[in-house]
Amino acid sequence: MNTTARDTMPHDAELTRLARASATELSQLLRARPESDRAHIKLDGADLVLPRQALVLLHDLLNEMAQGNAVTILPTHAEVTTQEAANMLNVSRPHLVKLLEEGALPFSRVGTHRRIRLQDLLVYKRHQEEATEAALQELADQAQDLDIGY
Fold first, then answer.
1. How, if at all, do strands 113-117 and 38-43 pair?
2. SS3 of 40, please?
3. pLDDT by residue (tens digit) across 65-123?
4. Which residues make beta-bridge pairs with 109?
5. Which residues are CB-contacts of 110 (< 8 A; sequence separation ≥ 6)?
6. How many CB atoms neighbour CB 121 within 10 A?
7. pLDDT tens across 42-78, in order?
8. In this structure, what DSSP letter does residue 2 have?
9. What is d(CA 52, CA 37) in angstroms, rounded to the nearest whole number?
10. Burial of 107 by CB count in 10 Å (0-12 exposed, 13-18 middle, 19+ buried)?
């Protein structure tokens, strides 16, 4: 019987547990050594030196894996399609196209196709999340003022 790579991979529950434990340990190390700008790691007998930014990215990746989320890593200068951007914003593609045409997000065209810089999309998403958070806080404040009991 042949053993494939899939057969030797840990199951999802084990991966989630391992990712959670690793993220916790890495988080503690990063907090305990805020001045460290690199880490020395031994992997299969080879010594590696990683910049702190890579460790922070690894921590974020492990946190996502611990929650069972799939992760894609793209450089910030990358461009995404309208469908990819819509998926990231959790909106429909027609709604995203409307936002682009209204100038809410900058885009470029490659032939007839629109492309959005990932960096611009992430800035827009962060602003939307901040606006949502502010609106929720305002509603909570109003509920407190009116003694609604929320």
1. unpaired
2. strand
3. 998 888 888 787 899 999 999 999 999 999 999 999 999 999 999 999 999 999 999 99
4. 114
5. none
6. 22
7. 889 899 999 999 999 999 999 999 988 888 887 878 9
8. P
9. 5
10. buried
Matching residue, tokens 């997000």: 105
For the stretch 33-68, what's the b/e string if a residue is b when 16 or more beta carbons lie within 10 angstroms of its beta carbon? eeeeeebeeeeeeeeeeeeeeebeebbebbbebbee
Which neighbouring-strand residues pair with 40?
A: 49
Q: Give 92's DSSP letter.
A: -
Q: How far apart are CA 88 and CA 45, in angstroms?
A: 39
User: What is the phi/psi pair of residue 8, to 5°?
Assistant: -90, -5
In the chain the domains, ranked by start, together with CATH numbers, are 8-66 (no CATH), 79-145 (1.10.1660)
Which tokens is 12 given? 């999802």
